[in-house]
Amino acid sequence: xxxxxxxxxxxxxxxxxxxxxxxxxxxxxxxxxxxxxxxxxxxxxxxxxxxxxxxxxxxxxxxxxxxxxxxxxxxxxxxxxxxxxxxxxxxxxxxxxxxxxxxxxxxxxxxxxxxxxxxxxxxxxxxxxxxxxxxxxxxxxxxxxxxxxxxxxxxxxxxxxxxxxxxxxxxxxxxxxxxxxxxxxxxxxxxxxxxxxxxxxxxxxxxxxxxxxxxxxxxxxxxxxxxxxxxxxxxxxxxxxxxxxxxxxxxxxxxxxxxxxxxxxxxxxxxxxxxxxxxxxxxxxxxxxxxxxxxxxxxxxxxxxxxxxxxxxxxxxxxxxxxxxxxxxxxxxxxxxxxxxxxxxxxxxxxxxxxxxxxxxxxxx
Length: 365
Hints:
Layout: H1 6-14, E1 20-23, E2 36-39, E3 46-50, E4 55-59, H2 64-73, E5 76-77, H3 86-89, H4 97-103, H5 110-113, E6 120-127, E7 132-136, H6 148-152, E8 160-168, E9 170-171, E10 175-182, H7 186-197, E11 203-209, E12 214-221, H8 223-235, E13 242-245, H9 248-259, E14 270-276, H10 281-288, E15 292-296, E16 301-306, H11 312-316, E17 321-327, H12 340-353
Parallel strand pairs: 1-2
Antiparallel strand pairs: 3-4, 4-8, 5-9, 6-7, 6-8, 10-12, 10-13, 11-12, 14-16, 14-17, 15-16
């Protein structure tokens, strides 16, 4: 089923007689293969874009490329740096805004600017009972009751099917630069990233590629400010081998590789995404015994390539964080089980918004 309007979508959900498997652009599906396929890619179009107000509203099936082209024409962007995981997951298609919000897809800049959910202003969606729900608007504001805007981000379609989203957008920076530290161990890299992120130099990316033995620190902003802060950041690491890149295209390409998890692409095995305290990351990585790793968010996000069928959680044991299987198969659920109190709250929300249990059932349970 591919509805082309919100009303068509509501009728399709209301008339469902069994499980529905939701798909936007099909680029980042995780862990669900059963149910009638319901695609949202037919509900498209930018409905409002006010560059002066830094506001964009678009239907959920609108391709990301279309939105980025509109923003680029005004020298603006989505600040949360949407990952393109097609190379990692072996998928085709094109990312849609609804899929991005449903996954709360956020790249390296999250440590400085925030996640996708932090730029959402409003949402419209159809819940599991076929009801059209609207929440939020075109400005940031505090409300009482459910904050459905934040709730829908990262819900992976289990509470409702998005039909329209509103975003705050930001201007593109004038310049960007990357400081590269060479030859650090994983523990040294995490310490270096913590020092950089704790400095006053507004680092907007902090990643470490153990395979290349490179630790990457990004700075963005006005050209003179970037040049000054790059020098100051370099001075934080006396005696370390460093290099730097200020070419805009090279900087963009380097961080696109981090964003899209390039070091793990094209390699056989299961891919796990571990969210943890940065200071815990090296020890957790050692427990994983992974075939390849990539650290992002200063060590708060670890991508790991493991042998097929390996349960990362069994290797990790108890830790402060969660592990999600983003590629591969196995008996373990794709999403990390919630603690009992959180699981009870999540189940209550699912019963409230999807009383018949038809929207991606079991995906996040």
